[in-house]
Specification:
The chain has 180 residues and is mostly helical. Helix content is 57%, strand content 7%. The protein is built from 6 helices and 3 strands; from the N terminus they run H-H-H-H-E-H-E-E-H. It is elongated, with a radius of gyration of 26 Å.
C-alpha cells in the first residue's frame, strides 16, 4: 500500500488546508447564504482530516520502524503447555512477559533450519521460548537482522546466526527445564 512507503509529512500544508476549510464553513453560511456549500466544506474537511491522520500515523510507523508483535494463538499456547510443563507454573505476569517476548521474536527474527528454509510455526515458537528463557535476566532487545538456526548439527559457519539451537540441546533443555 502507498502508506507503507511514506516517510515525509508536511504539517504546515495540512494546517493551511484545514484552516481554509474551517473558515469557509461559516463564510458560506453567513455571507453566501449557502448551506449546501457549508455541508460540502464540512464533509471535505472530515475526509481530508481522516486522510491526514492516516498519513500521519503511517509516517510515524515508518520512521520508527515499528513491527507489530505476533500474537500467540490458543494452539501455540497449548503447544507451549504441552512441550514445557513449567509454562503453566509461571505467574500470570511472567507468562504475559514471556509470551510478548516470543511474539516480538517471531515478528522480527528469521527462524531457519539446516537447509536455510523457514521453520514451521511450532518449531519457531519452541526456539523463541528457549532463547527467551535462556536470556531472561538480560535486557531484551531484538534486531531485525537476526537469524536463529534450529538444526540437528552445528553449521560450518555460525557467524551468520545470532542464536543456534541444536536439536539434542533442545531435548536436554526441555527435560532439564521441565524438571525444575
Amino acid at each position: 500500500m502507498i502508506f507503507n512507503k511514506i516517510k515525509e509529512y508536511r504539517f504546515s500544508f495540512w494546517i493551511a488546508v484545514f484552516s481554509f476549510l474551517l473558515i469557509a464553513i461559516p463564510i458560506s453560511v453567513i455571507y453566501l447564504k449557502s448551506m449546501s456549500l457549508a455541508k460540502f466544506f464540512g464533509i471535505l474537511l472530515v475526509i481530508l482530516l481522516i486522510l491526514a491522520l492516516k498519513i500521519w500515523f503511517s509516517v510515524a510507523k515508518n520512521r520508527n520502524d515499528i513491527v507489530p508483535r505476533v500474537v500467540l494463538n490458543k494452539n501455540d499456547l497449548f503447544d507451549l503447555n504441552k512441550d514445557f510443563k513449567d509454562f503453566l507454573t509461571l505467574s500470570a505476569s511472567n507468562r504475559d512477559i514471556l509470551v510478548n517476548r516470543i511474539g516480538l521474536l517471531l515478528s522480527k527474527v528469521k527462524f531457519v533450519d539446516a537447509s536455510n528454509t523457514l521453520l514451521d510455526r511450532r518449531d519457531a515458537v519452541r526456539v523463541a521460548y528457549t532463547y527467551v528463557c535462556l536470556n531472561t535476566g538480560q535486557d531484551f532487545k531484538v534486531n531485525t537482522d537476526w537469524v536463529f538456526l534450529f538444526s540437528p548439527s552445528m553449521p560450518e559457519s555460525d557467524t551468520l546466526y545470532k542464536y543456534v539451537l541444536l536439536e539434542d540441546d533442545f531435548k536436554t533443555f526441555k527435560t532439564n527445564f521441565n524438571s525444575l
